[in-house]
Specification:
Length: about 475
C-alpha cells in the first residue's frame, strides 16, 4: 500500500480528541519559551456521508501546543457549536432557500428580518479580548473557549449594537496601546465597512468609523499603523445575492472577480474614522497582510499579492485532490508606499519566492520592521518555511521533502535586542510519518532546534496565536 499523499492526510477528518498529551521531543526546546500556541482550522469534512467541497468548510477544531520547561503538551478539541451538533445529526447548517427577486425586494426583506442566520462554525483564527479567548470566522458569530481545556464556553457577544453581516476573522493587536483593530461589512442600500477597536481591559468594542464599500469587496485582513487602518478592496466582489444565503452554497459561490476594476486602498484615520485617501491601483488580489507602518509621512504596507483571485478556486477539494497545493498560484511579498496627501502609491516587490500565511512577532506590528516569516509555497511535494529580510530583499528557507509547514509564529526571546532573536513555532504535516509534528526553529538562522510528533495527522489549519505564559 502506498503512503497517503498530502491531500489525503492534510484533509482527512480527525475523530479523536486528545487532552494534554505530552509529546516526545526530538532535539531541545529553549527553556525560556513558555506559553500556548493555539491554532484554529478544520478538523472534520464529512456531514451525513457527504464531503465538504472547500477547505474553508470543515468543522472547527482548536489545537493547543502548551510549551514549558522544554516540554510540549498537546490538546485538540472540536468547538461544540450549532454547526457541530447539526453535523452530528447529519445536517448541514446555514442553508437558506431563496428565490430570485429584485434588489429592492431583497433589501426590504433584509431590513425587516435581518440577514438569515449564519453559521457558528468558527474555524479560521483565534484572538484574546480581555479575559476572553475567542474562535473567529467570517460570519459574525464568534465562539468563546477555555484556553486551558479548549472546551467551548458559548457564543461571544459584543455589548455594542454595531451590525455587521460579514466580518474579517483577522484582527490586529497594536502593541503600543494593546487595542485590537478589526472590521466588518454591513450590507444595505450603501454597503459599508465598519472599523472598530477593542479595549484590552474591558473587551468593549468602539467604532472607529465607517466607510463606503464598493462592490462590496471581499476583504480578508487589513493593515494597521499608528494613525491609520488600510483596507485593500480588491476586484474580488461579494455577490450580495449569494451572500444573502450565506454559507449555504459556501464562500466560493458568493465571490466574483471583476477584471475591469482596479484595487482600491482605503486609508482610514484611526482617530477620526475619516477616509483620508482611497487611491486605486492596478488590480491584484490578497488575503493576508504582513505588516504596515508610517515613515516620512507615508504609509508603508506589505502584503502577499496574487495576480488575480484564482487562488480561491485552487483551494477547492476538486483542485487540491489532484496534487495538493501544487496547482495553487503563488503569492508574492509586495510593498505599497502610500502618500495619503497626494493619494500616490508606489508598488515594489520585496521577494520573488512564493509565500503565504505571513506573520511577524507581535512587538513589531504597526512599527518599522525587517523580518517576516511565512509558509514557502513554490516547490512541489512540500511547503517550506521562509524568513524574508525585507530591507535587503533576501531570504532564508527551510524545506524537507514530504513536509508541509503551516503558518509560522515567531516568538521573541524576552530581553533580547535583535528583532529576530527567538524561535519560530510551526506545525507541519510529515507525510512519510503520516502525522503532524510541531517544529521549533531558531528564528535567526531557521536551523531546526526540535520536533515534537503528534499522535495523529491533523488537517491543514489556518491561523493561530502564541499566548505567552506571563501575559
Ligand atoms: Fe486568513
Amino acid at each position: 500500500m502506498s503512503t497517503p499523499n498530502a491531500y489525503e492526510l492534510g484533509f482527512r477528518s480527525v475523530e479523536r480528541e486528545v487532552t494534554d498529551r505530552r509529546l516526545p521531543v526530538e532535539g531541545t526546546i529553549p527553556d525560556w519559551l513558555s506559553g500556548r500556541l493555539i491554532r484554529n482550522g478544520p478538523g472534520r469534512f464529512e456531514v451525513g456521508g457527504e464531503r465538504a467541497t472547500h477547505w474553508f468548510d470543515g468543522l472547527a477544531m482548536l489545537r493547543k501546543y502548551a510549551v514549558d520547561d522544554g516540554e510540549v503538551h498537546y490538546t485538540n478539541r472540536f468547538l461544540r457549536t450549532e454547526a457541530y451538533d447539526a453535523a452530528a445529526r447529519g445536517e448541514r447548517t446555514g442553508e437558506f432557500a431563496s428565490g430570485p427577486g429584485s434588489v429592492r425586494q431583497t433589501l426590504r426583506w433584509l431590513r425587516a428580518l435581518g440577514p438569515p442566520a449564519s453559521t457558528d462554525n468558527a474555524n479560521v483564527h483565534v484572538a484574546r479580548f480581555g479575559d476572553h479567548y475567542v474562535a473567529q470566522t467570517e460570519a459574525p458569530r464568534w465562539i468563546a473557549f477555555d484556553p486551558d481545556t479548549l472546551t467551548t464556553r458559548g457564543e461571544f457577544r459584543w455589548t455594542d449594537d454595531l451590525t455587521v453581516h460579514l466580518t474579517a476573522a483577522h484582527t490586529t493587536v497594536d502593541p503600543r496601546t494593546g487595542e485590537t483593530v478589526g472590521f466588518g461589512l454591513q450590507f444595505g442600500r450603501r454597503h459599508r465597512y465598519h472599523l472598530y477597536a477593542v479595549d484590552p481591559e474591558t473587551a468593549a468594542r468602539r467604532r472607529i468609523g465607517s466607510v463606503r464599500a464598493e462592490g462590496p469587496g471581499y476583504v480578508h485582513d487589513c493593515a494597521v499603523t499608528r494613525d491609520y487602518v488600510v483596507l485593500v478592496e480588491t476586484p474580488l466582489r461579494i455577490d450580495v445575492w449569494r451572500a444573502l444565503v450565506p454559507w449555504g452554497d459556501g464562500l466560493l459561490d458568493m465571490l466574483r472577480y471583476d477584471d475591469d476594476r482596479g484595487t482600491r486602498l482605503l486609508v482610514v484615520d484611526r482617530e477620526t474614522g475619516g477616509l483620508v485617501a482611497d487611491p486605486t491601483v492596478d488590480p491584484f488580489f490578497t488575503f493576508h497582510h504582513v505588516n504596515a507602518y508610517q515613515s516620512d509621512g507615508e504609509v508603508v504596507m506589505d502584503l502577499v499579492a496574487f495576480a488575480d483571485a484564482s487562488i480561491v478556486d485552487a483551494l477547492t477539494f476538486e483542485t487540491l485532490s489532484r496534487d495538493a497545493f501544487a496547482a495553487a498560484p503563488e503569492g508574492r511579498l509586495d510593498r505599497f508606499r502610500i502618500d495619503p496627501d497626494a493619494a500616490e502609491v508606489i508598488r515594489t516587490r520585496r521577494y520573488d519566492g512564493g509565500l503565504e500565511l505571513p506573520t511577524v512577532p507581535p512587538a513589531v506590528r504597526t512599527r518599522p520592521y525587517r523580518y517576516a516569516y511565512a509558509q514557502a509555497t513554490d516547490r512541489r511535494g512540500a511547503n517550506g518555511l521562509v524568513k524574508v529580510d525585507i530591507d535587503r530583499e533576501t531570504a532564508t528557507e527551510w524545506w524537507a521533502r514530504g513536509v508541509y509547514v503551516e503558518e509560522p509564529r515567531m516568538i521573541q526571546r524576552p530581553g533580547a535586542d535583535a528583532e529576530d532573536a527567538g524561535v519560530v513555532l510551526a506545525p507541519a504535516l510529515d507525510t512519510d510519518a503520516e502525522r503532524t509534528v510541531l517544529l521549533v526553529f531558531d528564528a535567526e538562522t531557521l536551523s531546526l532546534l526540535a520536533r515534537a510528533p503528534l499522535p495523529h495527522a491533523v488537517p491543514f489549519g489556518f491561523h493561530g496565536r502564541f499566548f505567552p505564559a506571563d501575559a
